[in-house]
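batch_manifest entry 22 of 60
target: Permease
source organism: Bifidobacterium breve
requested by: lab member K.T.
priority: normal
notes from requester: please return tokens only, no post-processing; we will run our own comparison against the previous entry in this batch. if the run fails, retry once and flag.
--- input ---
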Amino acid sequence: MIFQAGSLLLVIIGAYALKHVHIFGERDYRVVQGLVFNLTLPCAIILSFATNKHDMRMLWIVLFGFFACAVPLFIVYIGSRGDEKNYRAFQMLNASGLNLGAFCLPVVQTFMGASAGLPIIMLDIGNATVATAGSLTITRTLLHMDENFKSLPLILRMRNIARDFLSSISFDIYMLMLVFMFLHITIPQPIVTIITPFANANAFCAMAMIGLMMEIPDNRKDKVELGKVIAWRMAFGAIIAVAAWFLLPFDMRIREIIVLGSFAPITIFSTKFTDSLTGNAKLAGFSLTVTAIISLVVMTVLHALLPGA
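--- output ---
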């Protein structure tokens, strides 16, 4: 297990090192990001649905994921009062939401096998309803950061929000698989065979993307704000994990998977939204990398200690 976690960390470090010897450029992470969100992650989602039984009780995990993402957003809004508006936005966007599909899914599947993917995907369906667009809308509305958006007619604002959701292929696949689950539709075996190599590449591509995004900020205030986000996330992670372990009506294996997911790092969408609202792309990318490394360590320790494996 230590070697499994180490291999994932080595991919992050290796991609970061290759960028700094100029094999890759500063913006090349966008290429890998495109591969992850539009190819390897959608294929991993489909493969997990295709190769696992669909217990309708897992819809409780979807609801749990929604509250696990939404509630911290409002708590941070209240708790960050007194800070500068840009840094409040940074805290709200990065202290809430779980990076489940691009990070937790490959990590948990590396630890516990392909069958561990379905609970993470169900958790991410609920999480994604906020993280993929809702958090941006809520943050800029509560902090009054986009007067142009506020001045738009309601129909245009709703259209923009809908476009944010529907433009995410991973979110679309989540919704499609949820429909398949309700209708008891199975994925044909030829499709499973075709997508398997792409799905298997998801872990490597996701870790490489994180390594390519990493860049250390030189602003002391940025580092202080990152410390606040880490503290927020660890507190929320512990609360979500305890709630999952004691409240969800599933066996220990599934509850362990959700506990591991509770400590997932900052989402890719949060880094994108941070860049668009505050213009601080360096802090956004570094924050994702730091929380990803912390998450990998925490998830490895929890997997060793919990009895659900």
